[in-house]
Fold this protein.
Amino acid sequence: MPGWEPLDMIVKNEITQREDEGFDVGGLLQKWEAAGKDEEKLMAVYRQLQNAPSQTNFPYTEPSELADIRGQRPDGPRRIDIRQNSEQLRDQFYGAWLGRCIGCALGRPLEIGPFSSGANGKPGWENVKLWFEGADAWPIRGYTPGYSKARDKGIDVAHRCGDSFSENISFMESDDDIRYTIIGLLQMEERGLDWDSWDVGMLWHQRLAYRQVCTAETQAYLNFAHVSSHINSHVLCEKPNDWRQKIEWVRTYLNPYRELIGAQIRVDGYAYAAAGNLELAADLAWRDASFSHVKNGVYGAMYIAAMIAASFAEKDPEKIVAWALSEIPKNARLAHDIRKAIEIAKGETDQVRLVSRIWEAFKHYKPGHANNNAALCTASVLFAGDDFEKAVATAVLGGWDTDCNGATVGSIMGARLGAKNIPERWKQPLNDTLYSGIWGFHPIPISECAKRSYNTYVKLRQ
């Protein structure tokens, strides 16, 4: 069941992934090259990868199970009291939902090769800048234009996202970064705290079509269907007694994308429900992330969830980042990368120089990896202070996964500042309307989603 890519590319990506995780893959790239498109030979290489020995000098400690993760994290506050009145807090919930939609809409048209990977000898961030300059829209103070003179330099935006162009935008169009926020809201509404990774798979198969998932999510979606169909011929069945054994196969089999950004963009609905409670937000993020991801893919979800939860109770971005960092293993690759991003952002006053330095520091990762994108989000939040526009624009300017990073930073800043402090030029074009591609939420007022998230938070605290 290759799923997202052909089998040969999955096996090639698995070689890189196993090496990143600290396994010795010496000689296997040559065997992959010799296998060509032969499925039997490719699977033989894949099986060798699964049995690759650990590198003796791997310097990181990266467990995937929650108890082990908690055993490796530094001290932290775990929970922060929320002292705002209900009106102020409701505005923060609306701000979080609005911010997520705004950042996603800004980044959607730029989620394409020249901006995510770079092109024409230029890094992705530089092509983002060129696009806005060519549209006479630099610095970024509004949504992405659909036309720019930068086309003459061989770059273009994603025209599948035309409803997000500045010339056209009148609602938040369907996007996975928003659909997963709704999935999180539904999970919390329907099950409260009584759910695990099995329930994630069930909800995906009930609410998401196969075409609505990608990379790690595609592989886990397929693997879950395989496991559940062996139980009861379809996915509407009871959790098997040996699910804890099966989940490892579901999240890893033919899934070299298990440390990409996918889980990181799925956590907002949980973090809203756990506002102020960093440890719970990280716990809920782990439950969701562990369906399809491991190690740094999981830590990215936990870290971002903790940042969002903290943002409802704390205004100081440095504290928010430090406290969120205390929810993941201190000697994980992600923790080291976040600390590097903090150092880069410290004292930096120039937006272009900031994103350039972040790109250079983390360009060894794939454009969709959890670590580089979390580092960019961190730097954007620290750099911007209390300026919503500056934070979201910086996250999108930085390239890589532009809509994911814009949405995440928008969510954090919206939760911190509230909807009233988001500039009208960003709010008004959306007309408080979301088309999600999920039944019951297509369309729906963004404010209604915020109200329902607030209600789940209140219910959880009772």
User: Anything to note?
Assistant: The chain has 22 helices and two strands. The chain has a mean pLDDT of 96.
